[in-house]
Amino acid sequence: xxxxxxxxxxxxxxxxxxxxxxxxxxxxxxxxxxxxxxxxxxxxxxxxxxxxxxxxxxxxxxxxxxxxxxxxxxxxxxxxxxxxxxxxxxxxxxxxxxxxxxxxxxxxxxxxxxxxxxxxxxxxxxxxxxxxxxxxxxxxxxxxxxxxxxxxxxxxxxxxxxxxxxxxxxxxxxxxxxxxxxxxxxxxxxxxxxxxxxxxxxxxxxxxxxxxxxxxxxxxxxxxxxxxxxxxxxxxxxxxxxxxxxxxxxxxxxxxxxxxxxxxxxxxxxxxxxxxxxxxxxxxxxxxxxxxxxxxxxxxxxxxxxxxxxxxxxxxxxxxxxxxxxxxxxxxxxxxxxxxxxxxxxxxxxxxxxxxxxxxx
Length: 361
What we know:
The protein is an alpha+beta fold and about 350 residues long. It has helices spanning about 15-20, 100-105, 115-125, 130-135, 190-200, 210-215, 245-250, 255-265, 275-280, 285-300, 305-310, 320-340, 340-355, and strands at about 1-10, 25, 35-40, 70-80, 85-95, 140-150, 160-165, 170-175, 175-180, 185-190, 220-230, 270. The protein folds into two domains: about 1-270, no CATH class; about 275-340, no CATH class. It is built from 13 helices and twelve strands. The strands form two sheets. A ten-stranded antiparallel sheet has the order 2-3-4-5-1-6-11-10-9-8. Helix 8 packs antiparallel against helix 13 and helix 10 packs across helix 11. It is elongated and about 95 Å long. It starts with a strand and ends with a helix.
């Protein structure tokens, strides 16, 4: 469930031995603050106090995806930080894709509860941090989501995700994804295989990437459903309030958060463009099945009441009853085919995935 995450361990008190062995030491700034950069990561310039930004600011787009790192910040004297009620003399900032750190690149698997706990604990072991202090870390950014394995007939379902309740900004990136953007967060659906391919994470060691990709996608469509919170302190949603602001909260509310992510789907205004049964009727066929689909959509857009009560009576009178029966039978048959659409099938796959990631008691 957890993908990328940024959390801050206040007063981590890393030992000189750990700092000398695992970090590069930066020069003190004018205030005497020293930033240590973990040796095993690449980092570009970023404000070390970025996680403490003003709550009034609205962040729509960020450089979040470009900066994954571990840093240790040591202040010359302890100080009060925004949104923190105690003095802080140092802090360890961990901003990582912990799913990739756990599984490695090129994997589609989602991080389960036990793997999440083990991965977080591994940071405590590596940096010799008290376990209670580690799990009390403040979470400032997080991505929660699942990757669904769908049948290839559902390729194109992205066009069905029309809008998200309460959000007006929508970002469509080609045929591969769609995001609904809110204040400090976004909800996205995207083609996971295509994204991995563009990031050179697909079949990394293989010389036949193209053939392997074609084989994997011949019958499968891997769709990522994701909530990205750019600023936890500025994210307001009753289902997530006080549930993701500390590592311990994520751990203790794991199942609740999984269900909450799944329930975001209920806020999507869904347009069932083509149901699976109708898709099977037109796939590989000639003109007539497509004409029938367009005829059905035409009646539906006009509305059946207007079509049958106002338009049909304008046709040849002696054949009106015959036409009405033919159109009514046709419409009812097609309407039945549309009752079970991709919406229900997607929901079933989503529920199945969530159940597989639940924390067992």
